[in-house]
């Protein structure tokens, strides 16, 4: 049965998005801090394996059927493959660039959502000031990318541009996942099952990618790394992504996608505080522009 959808973001949606963005900003820093002990793609595999187990237990407790035919198997597998590829880009990119920079590029996803989704779901079309907001955010990301190619970021990390490009590709893959969910029968099934397709396919695919990359597998790790994996799995890949799936089912995807531009702000703050990552003028300018983009895309004139 189709979900009742709202035309704008209410207080509940904004509260959930703020909590998710705050954690997702911290999560990139957690991943970066854990890479020294756990290889990146193997880290993602462990994360999604634990999340899949948690999701199956949740669905059994809530009486949500995961194995019933839903006519969404094909789109579900496609969404899962796109989701897995996104996280290969994300975790690998953190080898080459800072958590704050990569997050700016990962959250280019709303550009792609706004450009692609209206071709499949006309009601998601942006208008007027919303396109101006999208343009402002795009300028911000372009500014940050230039810093990685020619500016101070390149001097500090010669391969920062590669991490930036992987982050940008991850954003495109995230957007394509959103388009598949919103424009196929996958969008009409329970959010829990939408998420199950993504984490279960990732659990199956990521160990193969990790082996192909020659990563070392070991869980002989510190208490910090073990805690990081548990937090990434249970809070990140399970709770926050389940909330995201629920919001996609109830609110306009273009508007919630642009709202998550707040995540790079949190990633910048956590990265500077925890990892001592450099805060450059282009990066700060990029964050100001994407914040302005959020306001404009979600702007609604007062009712007369």
UniProtKB/TrEMBL annotation:
The keyword Endoplasmic reticulum does not apply. Residues 13-143, 162-298 form the EamA domain. One of its GO terms (cellular component) is membrane. The chain crosses the membrane at residues 41-61, 73-93, 99-117, 129-153, 159-183, 195-215, 221-244, 256-275, 281-299. Its main location: membrane. Pfam families: EamA. Keywords: Membrane, Transmembrane, Transmembrane helix. Coiled coil: none annotated. It is found in: Membrane. It is a multi-pass membrane protein. InterPro entries: AA-Vitamin_Transporters (IPR050638), EamA_dom (IPR000620), EmrE-like (IPR037185). Belongs to the EamA transporter family. This is Threonine/homoserine efflux transporter RhtA. It comes from Simplicispira metamorpha.
């Amino acid at each position: 049965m189709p979900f009742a959808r709202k035309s704008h973001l209410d207080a509940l949606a904004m509260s959930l998005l703020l909590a998710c963005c705050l954690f997702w900003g911290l999560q990139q820093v957690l991943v970066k801090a854990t890479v020294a002990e756990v290889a990146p793609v193997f880290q993602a595999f462990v994360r999604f394996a634990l999340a899949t187990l948690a999701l199956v237990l949740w669905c059994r407790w809530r009486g949500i059927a995961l194995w019933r035919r839903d006519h969404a198997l094909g789109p579900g597998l496609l969404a899962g493959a796109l989701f897995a590829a996104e996280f290969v880009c994300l975790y690998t990119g953190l080898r080459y660039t800072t958590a704050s920079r990569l997050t700016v590029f990962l959250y280019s996803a709303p550009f792609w959502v706004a450009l692609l989704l209206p071709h499949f779901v006309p009601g998601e079309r942006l208008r007027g000031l919303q396109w101006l907001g999208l343009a402002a955010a795009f300028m911000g990301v372009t500014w940050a990318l230039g810093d990685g190619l020619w500016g101070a970021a390149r001097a500090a990390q010669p391969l920062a541009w590669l991490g930036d490009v992987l982050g940008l590709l991850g954003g495109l893959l995230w957007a394509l996942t959103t388009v598949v969910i919103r424009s196929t029968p996958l969008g009409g099934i329970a959010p829990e099952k939408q998420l199950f397709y993504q984490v279960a396919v990732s659990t199956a695919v990521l160990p193969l990618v990790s082996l192909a990359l020659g990563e070392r597998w070991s869980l002989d790790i510190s208490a910090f790394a073990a805690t990081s994996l548990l937090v990434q799995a249970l809070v990140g890949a399970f709770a926050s992504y389940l909330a995201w799936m629920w919001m996609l089912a109830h609110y306009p995807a273009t508007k919630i996608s642009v709202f998550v531009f707040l995540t790079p702000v949190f990633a910048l703050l956590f990265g500077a505080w925890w990892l001592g990552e450099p805060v450059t003028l282009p990066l700060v300018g990029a964050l100001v522009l994407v914040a302005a983009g959020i306001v404009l895309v979600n702007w609604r004139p007062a009712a007369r």
